[in-house]
Task: inverse folding
């Protein structure tokens, strides 16, 4: 068959297949046009999952007769200045949406500019354009699509159920509404009550309210404000939004929303940056709740890499990643010991009167102040005045008690080049009792976020009293995080001990990979890995991090070289070192089943309050739950 020119009708239908994958794609394109037109209120009505009807009404600037005639022509747009594809300041710019939709459906566009006396309309019937006619409407634009894919009936076989298509439409509208809280949205699909999002303002408070209406009240209760700025290759960069506490997460990424210059995107770089920022704060395979908005100079961004504009490419991905990771980590660290409010809610929901009766009968509770044994009688040193916080250090110092009650002794300290103090000083001597005989209830501790210790339950859970409720702490999980943060701090401040190799390990690599690795030699040295060039395509490894022990040097170096070549960073080594530190912290923490004195419990609570990320353990599980007194009284019918 010889080469021939495709007809305009076929070209339009091919373009429609790229731009309009399903009804939700058409809704997205039409709503983006309304946003670009300066609308303050947008109404979307759909029926039949969007295949029978899609109607989008806005109060934007409207179009006159000449604009109305051109808007349904391919590659006609008002959004591209001087044909500069690297200066895109709007959501749409190709001029493909309306003609593509018109080629596979019945499309009617009616519009009236502000100040105009009459409105006008134009109809396209499966690619055949009609004449402009008078139309009655308020200022703005109404776009109505009927019988979508009627010109390509085979496409209908690939559509999902009406309910599934309605859900996809709602998701597309929600994503655009999140990025534009100053615009009001109404969506009616006929299946349920309409989605109504009142217009607000461009303030963090209004944005959080909009996010809460979409992501749920649990997100609002646990959201941290994110804000950060930097400089890109051609101009300033800014990231803002809200992210959930690490203890608020889910199995999939459906509550993870990312936007670039107001455009919803699914970008691997941004997803990777979020994952790197949360790191070990959430369990593996789980995703945090967040909505992040990144603003960059248009010249530093290529949005023309996907027909649906769902993907973007950054001019300087390293700076973008660093900005997001830095802003997220700063917010997460500033949250300190704070844990998700959902923990207390779920705890209360798990109680029933029957559960309470059986639990109280079988619980082993060590009541503080119920007996007359003092800390001196227990062999633990007494603390005078303010309860002294314990110091986290060598994680091998503390092991679980042997059955005889003896305590395994530690290896010599100084492994990280700092003054050694016990991670939990009173635990050097085993506690004989957990009842803290002469420990009175200190009123000042009731004002602390984690309160005053009152009991130890099942030899693992500390019950503390606050002014308006109580807190239940998992002692092992909490201390594990404290020791881990101490170890990470040592790593971050150049305290990575090295071990020299008797014979340097020679690793053969691709020449480009070897060159990239040598460029990062100084950074790798700070992490305890000393490498140098050894001829073309090879490196010599002379020292490795002591934390890794007897490791596979060749495998480590090859993984690092590949990572540096693809991402420009050496996070793999950092991740491996932190994984080792996490395991050390787990084995060096206060074990479950260890009885603690009242002073020890209060010291643990105070150190948690002073340590970032202490609301979750190294595995991402919560370290404590907080219950309000009003909720407890409601549980017992007192309110």
Result:
């Amino acid at each position: 068959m010889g080469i021939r020119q495709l007809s305009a009708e076929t070209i339009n239908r091919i373009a429609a297949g790229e731009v309009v994958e399903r009804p939700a794609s058409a809704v997205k394109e039409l709503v983006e046009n309304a946003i670009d037109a300066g609308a303050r209120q947008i109404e979307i009505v759909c029926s039949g999952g969007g295949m029978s009807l899609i109607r989008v009404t806005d109060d934007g600037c409207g179009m006159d007769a000449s604009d109305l005639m051109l808007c349904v022509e391919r590659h006609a747009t008002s959004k591209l200045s001087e044909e500069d594809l690297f200066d895109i300041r709007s959501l749409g710019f190709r001029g493909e949406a309306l003609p593509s939709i018109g080629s596979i459906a019945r499309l009617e566009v009616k519009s009236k500019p502000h100040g105009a006396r009459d409105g006008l309309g134009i109809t396209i019937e499966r690619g055949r354009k009609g004449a402009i006619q008078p139309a009655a409407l308020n200022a703005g634009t109404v776009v109505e699509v009927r019988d979508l894919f009627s010109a390509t009936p085979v496409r209908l076989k690939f559509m999902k159920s009406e309910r599934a298509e309605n859900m996809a439409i709602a998701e597309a509208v929600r994503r655009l509404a999140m990025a534009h809280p100053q615009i009001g949205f109404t969506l009616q699909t006929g299946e349920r009550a309409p989605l109504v999002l009142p217009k607000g303002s461009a303030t963090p408070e209004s944005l959080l309210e909009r996010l809460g209406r979409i992501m749920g009240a649990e997100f609002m209760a646990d959201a941290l404000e994110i804000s950060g700025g930097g400089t890109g290759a051609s101009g300033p960069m800014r990231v803002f939004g809200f992210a959930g506490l690490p203890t608020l997460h889910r199995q999939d990424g459906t509550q993870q929303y990312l936007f670039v210059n107001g455009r919803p995107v699914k970008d691997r770089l941004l997803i990777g940056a979020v994952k790197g920022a949360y790191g070990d704060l959430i369990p593996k395979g789980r995703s945090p709740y967040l909505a992040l908005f990144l603003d960059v100079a248009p010249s530093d961004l290529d949005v023309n890499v996907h027909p649906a504009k769902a993907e973007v490419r950054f001019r300087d991905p390293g700076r973008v990643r660093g900005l997001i990771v830095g802003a997220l980590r700063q917010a997460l660290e500033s949250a300190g010991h704070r844990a998700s409010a959902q923990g207390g809610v779920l705890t209360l929901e798990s109680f029933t009167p029957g559960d309470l009766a059986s639990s109280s009968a079988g619980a082993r509770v060590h009541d503080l102040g119920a007996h007359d044994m003092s800390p001196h009688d227990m062999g633990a040193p007494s603390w005078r005045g303010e309860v002294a916080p314990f110091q986290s250090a060598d994680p091998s110092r503390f092991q679980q008690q042997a059955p005889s009650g003896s305590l395994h002794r530690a290896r010599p300290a100084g492994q990280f080049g700092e003054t050694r103090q016990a991670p939990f000083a009173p635990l050097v001597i085993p506690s004989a009792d957990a009842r803290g005989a002469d420990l009175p209830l200190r009123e000042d501790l009731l004002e602390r976020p984690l309160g005053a210790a009152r009991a130890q339950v099942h030899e693992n859970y500390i019950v503390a009293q606050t002014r308006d409720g109580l807190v239940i702490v998992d002692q092992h999980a909490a201390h594990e995080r404290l020791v881990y943060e101490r170890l990470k701090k040592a790593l971050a401040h150049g305290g990575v001990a090295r071990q020299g190799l008797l014979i340097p390990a020679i690793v053969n690599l691709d020449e480009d990979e070897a060159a990239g690795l040598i460029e990062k030699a100084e950074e790798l040295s700070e992490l305890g890995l000393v490498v140098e060039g050894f001829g073309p395509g090879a490196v010599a490894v002379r020292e490795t991090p002591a934390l890794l022990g007897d490791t596979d040097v060749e495998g480590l170096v090859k993984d690092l070289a590949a990572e540096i070549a693809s991402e420009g960073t050496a996070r793999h080594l950092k991740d491996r070192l932190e994984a080792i530190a996490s395991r050390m912290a787990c084995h060096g923490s206060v074990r479950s089943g260890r009885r603690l004195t009242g002073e020890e419990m209060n010291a643990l609570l105070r150190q948690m309050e002073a340590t970032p990320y202490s609301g979750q353990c190294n595995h991402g599980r919560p370290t404590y739950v907080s219950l309000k007194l009003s909720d407890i009284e409601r549980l017992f019918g007192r309110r």
